Amino acid sequence: MIRVAAVGDVHVDADVVGRYRPALEQLGDCADVLLLAGDLTRHGTVAEAKCVATEFGGLPVPVVAVLGNHDYHSDQPAEVTAVLEDAGITVLECSGTVLTVGGTRLGIAGAKGFGGGFAGRCASDFGEPETKAFIRTTQRIAECLGTTLRSLECDVLVALTHYAPVPDTLAGEPLEIYPFLGSYLLGQAIDSAPTALAVHGHAHAGTERGITPGGVRVRNVAHPVIKQAYSVFHLGEQLETKALSATGSAR
Ligand SMILES: [Fe+2]
Ligand SMILES: [Fe+2]
Questions:
Q1: Of the ligands numbered here, which is closest to the C-alpha atom of 11?
Q2: How far is CA 207 from CA 2, 68, 161, 166, 171, in A?
Q3: Considering only CA atoms, which of 114, 30, 45 is closest in space to residue 84?
Q4: Other beta carbons within 10 Å of 72
Q5: Model confidence pTM above 0.90
């Protein structure tokens, strides 16, 4: 059994530093890895990334992250990534990593993802160049997520994104903004591999649980949704638990 802790949308800045740390110090007791599902900062500045590094660096378990749209806002995703990597956090973008936990290989494929909407109500590769650029961005990211998922040599496979792969976990959000919250193409990518669990964030007003058309469990771990420092998922058996420690709202 592998214990995967996850949270997204922590939106750390100087005011938030210290809010998650007490719960994080106990991670080694209940989890083997921590996944961060993007929107680690508020505005994607290097100063905020340093706050994330302070909060999530040096933990007793490996930390694997993807960035979110907020982390791109200052047009410095490479700089933000470098600060996080310097703190020992693995940042994935259309890439993967394999961790060995008690002799079991845990593969994690990560990508920020993008919008576009869901089957029957989605943007298409048609019309103005701006529209085509939008959906082609999603297509590119979904394709590389699928390629990464299929290429990892591991025993248990997890997909980590910021944007949602299914509409289930958006329930509670206005229907009008679903195309900006995720894409069914991410779900198709997840279903193209033997994925055990898909975690995402971004939908602060969404719902925790969903499932892809192929039957993969999807969990929205946005902090405003799970209302605690992190959730813990037990893979290898059909058991799911939550961590104990709540924090205040991150935004
Ligand atoms: Fe967010
Ligand atoms: Fe977001």
A1: 1
A2: 24, 18, 16, 11, 5
A3: 45
A4: 18
A5: yes
For ligand 2, a single-atom ion, which residues have Cβ within 5 Å? 39, 68-69, 202
Which residues lie below 8 Å from residue 7, measured CB to CB, with a gap of 6+? 20, 34, 35, 36, 37, 201, 221, 223, 226, 228, 229, 230, 231
Distance CA 202, CA 113 (A): 10
Q: What is the dihedral of CA 152, 206, 117, 41, to 10 degrees?
A: -60
* Residue 126 alpha carbon to ligand 1 centre in Å: 29
**Using one digit for the tens of pLDDT, what is the confidence trace for 33-66?**
999 999 999 999 999 999 999 999 999 999 999 9
Mean pLDDT score, 226-250: 64
| Greater model confidence, 88 or 119 | 88
Q: Are strands 156-161 and 197-200 parallel, antiparallel or unpaired?
A: parallel
pLDDT, one tens digit per residue, over 161-217 is 999 999 999 999 999 999 999 999 999 999 999 999 999 999 999 999 999 999 999
Ligand 2 centroid, distance to 162 Cα (angstroms): 7
* Rounded CA separation 110/127 (Å): 30
* Closest ligand (CA of 10): 1
Q: Which residue type, as a one-letter code, is found at position 139?
A: Q
Distance from the Cα of residue 63 to its chain's centroid: 12
